[in-house]
Amino acid sequence: MSTPETHRAVEAVWRIESAKLIAGLARIVRDVGLAEELAQDALVAALEQWPESGIPPKPGAWLMATAKHRAIDQLRRGERQRQKYALLAHQAELDQAQSGPDLDAALDDDISDDLLRLVFVACHPVLSTEARVALTLRVVGGLRTDEIARAFLVSEPTVAQRIVRAKRTLAEAGVPFEIPEPAQRAARLSSVLEVIYLIFNEGYAATAGDDWMRPALCEEALRLGRILAELVPQDPEVHGLIGLLEIQASRSAARTDTSGQPVLLLDQDRRRWDQLLINRGLTALRRARALGGPPGPYVLQAAIAACHARARTPEETDWVQIASLYETLALVAPSPVVELNRAVALGMAYGPARGLELVDALTSEPALKDYHLLPSVRGDLLAKLGRAEEAREEFERAAALTRNERERAVLLERAAACR
């Protein structure tokens, strides 16, 4: 195998194995930053050795063994970490005493718990939202710093700084590498779900730049969510989030036209919706409901998405049910954005005047002051009421507020159509 081919193979292995590798190392050294450094050292070793020796039969085990040996070498030079060295050296001796299958079993031992610990640490509330997203994509998703920077349209040094600060904050706060106790788990799990949802949303409707969507981020969020669903199978909200993301992702191919311009939900060709993803999403929603208990915000949002997915045409959409679900969501997780979405549903279910009444009540909401979808929704309702000049002004204001070039073009087109 040529060197370029080997490098591509190494990158593929890294994407698959890096989270498990970092998680296993972090369990031993109790430090996410050090664990990632050791994993990166193993990756460099693979890039140096595999072009000559070939890819080993079990590349994940090779990376783990190499990382552990590098850890021992490094910890030998650091007297401050003698206890960690002793632990690593003892485990390395045990590994070396085992033969092939036994070694693999040892490396895979408790891997699910290790991954879950890593997810909880990377999404720890002690970190800022931006830091949680960057660190999760880095250590759990295996994305490079430049990939994260490109996805979020920020500079590479900015992302690198966020990751460095996140690791430092975790170390200084003494965040333990462990699954939270049951009393803390719900709050911590909420943070994990929020991070995955934020990653998906940035891919689904990019906040800035020239592209309407960034599919790679949607795919990464789905992958992280599916991993989490396997790790926490008894939590309804986890399956609710997966159901929501699967159904949302099913529309991806229909959300842009051949030139890359956005296509709004009611104008989409529903024959292009991915039925496999829809079925997976509906299955996840049924699983969430089967677990019982009052529905949480992600289960409710998945139920709303399911109403759209089940409608073969826009006219068949059960807007009355959607409006009812938004009303419940507003009680469970109140926010101005939820109220804005409820206004859209009310407008579709009971007429634009009903929706506009709620939107007008939101115009003084500080949180929506610079939110471009507020004037966009208001413009749509005004246009349906025949108030074309007012609608044009709202669409133009929305266009001035958005930072996404594709969305700006659509809003300006809608403004022009009101003239």
Automatic annotation (TrEMBL):
InterPro entries: DUF6596 (IPR046531), RNA_pol_sigma-70_dom (IPR014284), RNA_pol_sigma70_r2 (IPR007627), RNA_pol_sigma70_r4_t2 (IPR013249), RNA_pol_sigma_r2 (IPR013325), RNA_pol_sigma_r3/r4-like (IPR013324), WH-like_DNA-bd_sf (IPR036388). Residues 188-288 form the DUF6596 domain. Keywords: Coiled coil, Sigma factor, Transcription, Transcription regulation. One of its GO terms (biological process) is DNA-templated transcription initiation. Residues 121-170 form the RNA polymerase sigma factor 70 region 4 type domain. One of its GO terms (molecular function) is sigma factor activity. Residues 24-80 form the RNA polymerase sigma-70 region domain. It comes from the Bacteria. Transmembrane segments: none annotated. Residues 378-408 form a coiled coil. Belongs to the sigma-70 factor family. ECF subfamily. This is RNA polymerase sigma factor (Sigma-70 family). It comes from Actinopolymorpha pittospori.
